[in-house]
Specification:
The chain has about 220 residues and is of the alpha/beta class. It has helices at about 10-15, 20-40, 55-65, 75-85, 125-135, 155-165, 180-185; strands spanning about 45-50, 65-75, 90-95, 110-115, 140-150, 190-195, 205-210. The protein has a single domain, classed as Vaccinia Virus protein VP39 (Rossmann fold).
Amino acid sequence: MALPATDWDRYYAKPAATARFTRRLTERRLLGLLRGTLGGQGALSVCELGGANSSFAATFLEALPIRSYRIIDTNARGLALLGARFGDDGRVAWEQGDVLAPNPAHGGRYDLVYSVGLIEHFDPAGTRRAIATHLDYCRPGGLVLMTFPTPTWLYRGLRALLETAGLWGFPDERPLGFDEVLAALAGRGELVHRSINWAILLTQGIVAVRAGRSHRD
């Protein structure tokens, strides 16, 4: 039986009180990784999947040499919030789209394709499809970066406490092991980074891959 879906309208209307702190820690971690892996490249084209009302776009646009930044998400409310933040920035565009039904127009276009906390909201087949979309949208030699909750003892214990207290808002979140994520990436690129972000307590795996040629090439 399918799990109830996360209420993303509610999430964007009222993020968790701890979100600002954990996002700042994640942002710092990812920015350091991107500077190390993308350093020396020219102006970058970026695609953030599942990035409605993006928590990271503003900092990345300021800190990295980005010429275009596209955000794709299914949630209309979260996407509408981007207008007030980036409506005057010609580098930024957004659209409603589904990572499970990729738009061929985006195939092989971007230097960086990334998501933060997206691929865990599907069943195993959906997760594989979502990972494939990251790779399909990335140009050969570009970078795919994904973060996802991973079931460490710390994650399991803290989530159990939050669920007991009625404070858990992500019923369809399925923590992923590295084996599952790396198996979906097999043959599609070179692994350049793998780590766990322990600092945010609800531990997140981080994987970065240098993309190979698309299956459509």
